[in-house]
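Re-run with default settings, no changes from the original entry. Doing this only to confirm the output is reproducible before filing.
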Amino acid sequence: MRRKDRQMPKEWAINIADKCEWATLAMTAPDGYPYCVPLSIARMENFLYFHCAKSGKKIDCLKFNPNVCISCVGDTKRLDDEFSTLYESAIIFGKAEEVTNDDEKICALRAISLRHTPNNMSHFDEAIKRSLAITSVWKVSIDYIDGKSKHR
């Protein structure tokens, strides 16, 4: 990291991943170009989980090269009196792996749902019955995480 004065400890960076509204997953496409998409994530232990369709460009990229980078942005504030922004962020490097065990898939989907739609959990079991077979769940190992913050 170039600005060591803005580097934050691992535990702080994990907190940013846990609280960010959404994250961006960066991958390498089979044609060699970078490809990134926003995700709703949830962390369980040393893994970030997300769900998606069973096919598409994201799946093609993950199967081509499982090495990924995830960017998480916490709180931000544009400064009115400077050409700058206060921010907090975490960058995660790891390997993506499809979750094939139904119990782990359901656990991950529950964690994602609790995090992003907690008021709709009364419909969770019904949604799982309807869509588990057509939903893909992936996990990314947190091999390395870097936190950065700019505060006044």
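The mean pLDDT is 94. The first strand starts at residue 7 and ends at 8.
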